[in-house]
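[stage:ingest] chain + small molecule (magnesium ion)
[stage:ingest] validated
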Amino acid sequence: MVYIIVDLEATCWEKRENRPNEIIEIGAVAINDEGEWIDEFDIFVKPLLHPVLSDFCIQLTSITQEMVDKASNFPQALQEFQNWITNCGSTEEDYVLCSWGHYDRVQFKNDCVLHGLDAAWLASHISLKHQYADLKNLRRPIGMKKALQREGLKLDGTHHRGLDDAQNIAKIFLNYFEFWTMP
Ligand code: AMP
Ligand code: MG
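[stage:predict] done
[stage:export] tokens:
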């Protein structure tokens, strides 16, 4: 089994209106059965529907217009991500996508639908955010930043950047490695 701790960044606006969000960064950490940090992945994605990032989005994520202009489109980036997942585990091994909340799976699904791609690869997923709330008997799920504080862990890197967020979530994941419920 390979655990893929994944975090997405997406286009966003201060006032949402009716614009669909699209992935602009995929960050991930792969952890093996032994709880070893085996590899990391990071890629920018050029959005199709709204290729110009809002100032709000640039400020939130620190992702610049140039980074997405130079990036691959979603189908290519997803292919690279899927190849990386395959390379992280030996061929017959399974993987579980783990993210802080359900948002990342839903966003992946939406982008797959937008580009006419198969979404079956998303079937094995858990929300660490919801499981963390259960493990800790919290009344409701809390954000990653709060969870890091609770754990006495530092928020390393830049919040709202895919790989940095994934690395920070992975630290929480490893603190409770034995306790997550797999699908
Ligand atoms: P995160 O993993 O917390 O960085 O959030 C992932 C994506 O959700 C961001 O790239 C934004 O598209 C969106 N998002 C997160 N926080 C906000 C916010 N405060 N306002 C609007 N969109 C947000
Ligand atoms: Mg993030």
